[in-house]
Amino acid sequence: MNGHRVIELFEQWAKPALAMDGDPIGLHIGALNKSISRVLVTLDVTKEVVQEAIDEQCELILAHHPPIYRKLSAIDTSTPQGRLIEKCIKQDIAVYAAHTNLDIAQGGVNDMLSDKLQLNDVKVLTQTYSEPMMKLAVFTPESHADTMREALATAGAGELGDYEQCSYSLKGTGRFRPTSEADPYIGEAGKLEVVDEEKIEVVFPKSSTSRIVKAMLKVHPYEEVAYDLYAMDLQANEHGLGRIGKVEPMTLKEFSQHVKSQLNVPFVRVTGDLDAPVKKVAVIGGDGNKYIRDAKRAGADVLVTGDMYFHTAQDAETMGLMIVDPGHHVESVMKEGTVQYMTNLMQGEKNAPQFIASKLSTEPFKLI
């Protein structure tokens, strides 16, 4: 599969528009205009990970943490970063980064962490993005109505909250007269044709417009398709950083042991009374220092996040918010999670590449 198509499919999930301002997502090294048969999914791009990609014969590395976070004034191959870039280019390995857009995406990193922690009734912690909705109304012969509804649903139209394949149909009569230049599916040139038709209406996020219209045109039998597109005041599902949900009541000590076990880390840092009850949990992958007030306002008893600063932990303690810090590296859940998601998404795609989770740990810290 062409690399541009691989990323096009991936970005249907982790939309670039979801990324926070200034986050350097996207293609970092190499080119996508080539055939991709194997993709290595990793948290970080290190020299060891690049060698793993070479050994696994991968043409593309899909990373969570951008390898080039700040703009470079030069690629100095005498530096570690320069040598890493040089090695990727020489081996023709492209590197693509999906950072906060993968954090925020439904089913992304924060949802993966919520699932690991067995949270229930999970909601977005801090809204960062909402997308306007569009409505498509297409007029199709009754004989093709079911095919049209199926094609639109497959393309992602008609998803409303916890419901999918939502549509509305209205039966009516279509009239048209083909000219001598036409090649009609139904009717004859110069003769007025009357056809039993259905008007099918579906809604979808604005960013999906091109995909939805393409799917509609592909299955519609007419040479010239009659359809309408409407912008709506309705907003799509909220997207945002972090998640908040409920757990079975337990003490902070018990919950800390739960986090340690579920996220497979050697230790966690904890603030608060170890005997205090925990019922409502906020979670933010990576560095969540900025979001302690959001977690408190949302009613969280405890915030699970990494890289907690000393003074921020004190501030959280003062406001009555407990902290469980399992480290930044727990975001590595994205490796297996992304492989599973993309493998499922690629089903039915011609020449779909194989997605492989990196077996290497990029955790820089060791416990002594």
UniProtKB/TrEMBL annotation:
One of its GO terms (molecular function) is metal ion binding. Keywords: Metal-binding. GO terms for cellular component: cytoplasm. A divalent metal cation 1 binds at H65, D103, H328, E331. A divalent metal cation 2 binds at H64. It holds the Pfam family DUF34_NIF3. InterPro entries: DUF34/NIF3 (IPR002678), DUF34/NIF3_bac (IPR017221), DUF34/NIF3_sf (IPR036069), N-reg_PII/ATP_PRibTrfase_C (IPR015867). It comes from the Bacteria. Belongs to the GTP cyclohydrolase I type 2/NIF3 family. This is GTP cyclohydrolase 1 type 2 homolog.
